[in-house]
Prior knowledge:
The chain is α+β, with helices and mostly antiparallel strands.
Amino acid sequence: xxxxxxxxxxxxxxxxxxxxxxxxxxxxxxxxxxxxxxxxxxxxxxxxxxxxxxxxxxxxxxxxxxxxxxxxxxxxxxxxxxxxxxxxxxxxxxxxxxxxxxxxxxxxxxxxxxxxxxxxxxxxxxxxxxxxxxxxxxxxxxxxxxxxxxxxxxxxxxxxxxxxxxxxxxxxxxxxxxxxxxxxxxxxxxxxxxxxxxxxxxxxxxxxxxxxxxxxxxxxxxxxxxxxxxxxxxxxxxxxxxxxxxxxxxxxxxxxxxxxxxxxxxxxxxxxxxxxxxxxxxxxxxxxxxxxxxxxxxxxxxxxxxxxxxxxxxxxxxxxxxxxxxxxxxxxxxxxxxxxxxxxxxxxxxxxxxxxxxxxxxxxxxxxxxxxxxxxxxxxxxxxxxxxxxxxxxxxxxxxxxxxxxxxxxxxxxxxxxxxxxxxxxxxxxxxxxxxxxxxxxxxxxxxxxxxxxxxxxxxxxxxxxxxxxxxxxxxxxxxxxxxxxxxxxxxxxxxxxxxxxxxxxxxxxxxxxxxxxxxxxxxxxxxxxxxxxxxxxxxxxxxxxxxxxxxxxxxxxxxxxxxxxxxxxxxxxxxxxxxxxxxxxxxxxxxxxxxxxxxxxxxxxxxxxxxxxxxxxxxxxxxxxxxxxxxxxxxxxxxxxxxxxxxxxxxxxxxxxxxxxxxxxxxxxxxxxxxxxxxxxxxxxxxxxxxxxxxxxxxxxxxxxxxxxxxxxxxxxxxxxxxxxxxxxxxx
Length: 733
């Protein structure tokens, strides 16, 4: 389908797209037709520009006016440019070399194709061609829109949210699209901003420098001189007596001060300083940019031309008569208003400022929308966790940081370098990690401690670990979230559906990532659930009963739609994370589906047992100190207490109460003689139960009394964590 036909004095250009009607309807369904507009603009020479919309209607385009959009992300656009006979050479003028390599010029036709991938924003088609000895340029500008999100609204929200958390993280370089931005008086000036601003200002700056050199501002300057009497054109009153005294001496020299014009002014000194500073910075950044493999020959040639011009200006003899800049004692009206000087001063001021992502005249390139969406989802999850834990900013420990990615842009740190800790009163409640890479390597800086992958590396986008201490001190429940900037159509209720392969990926993560217990050198299952975050839409009531939402309750794998300004569907994710936070450990584990034939033991039962006086040395004291490793019963143990799913033990120390929780490692039988360790005494060699223990955590800050009437034979209580308050004496007196 021919989407666009442009007739120029030197050529005719046609832009095509094979399945544009499907792309348009997909974008219309996700965003709305009223948001699918683009502003088109072009350089001189066009006689007509005709756009064909999705139903084949012809629309005449006007320069710098809006019309239906035709360029979208992840779509192929074949482009044909047929030049007139007098054009001998033509090429595509992208800053990316691989884009230029997609176009070839043969028999007066320059042909190739464009696919913007996940890059959205404003872009250009630039043509460079030869007519005789003249090199001509043509630029056609337009907007590349997203089929999943509203570029004019959602993209800006994503950028604002990211920039609020991580300044400059959104920026990137060597992209095919750009965005408007405005200078800001506050903040730092990153190098990428400096380069972007100067790219817009360099020709105006160079022209201003040339104008000043040709017609500089100068001033009268007092200069000391010695002259004979016959050379004096004016006799100052200060030398009249000296002249009378030496009137007979024709060779006598008189000291006078004469006024001469000089270029050594504050403004010209500033020009010299600004030119040297900008040239040095430009040369340093140029070397770094040229090292990028994807930089095109067109871009390198432009940079070299600019640098040669700046160096040539530096060597102008004009600057030999100008001194060094030492600052301004007061504001200069010449720098602010005079021709040439005002442009130099304006450029220098802009280069010292930071930026604001508001619509402006300057170009700025950002990361692709898929990467931005992934970072934005990480920020959204962190905000929800903070809100549901009822924490303040002081309770959040941001150990995450940005890392330079090679040129002069930033990436968010991975794994341990992106950790956010959520604490209350010094107690860790949760942690959030971005893009950890789990592999067989242990304690990798980009992984998570104690998490291993015996097979191939796995790299989930977002890892949420909730700390639970109701069963075991510091037990961590791990949940995965993966942000996917994709939609696989709609279901029967009109709800956007997440991609199937992304759901399959969550199954893979849960099966591939293990926890390694280094004490026993065993692997244990780690990931409880995995969830896709995608820019879907739909009525919240329909989303709540969608298949991808119901599977979370069934198998703990599914998806949540999450897009900017969609507070209704975001509420589903908020409620889910709140449930994860509030659920007890045994409630979470009880919902885990066991392997067929395997018995899933939920560690909820515990045994409270009396610790009395014993002849075994240090027996009772070991429980008082919290380092006991063995508990043995008396000769009679209640037959009503089941042992097969008993996981925890709470010692009741007579006269003190209960305090500590122990994990039962093993239950075995021992003789009373072994238990008492009293050789030579007349002790009946009866059998006892022995519980091998490992300290888990403190149940309370101090000893708590219990209702001994609820103990079996005043010795044992067979109970659960849920029923703890039933046998405790709450109000001690």
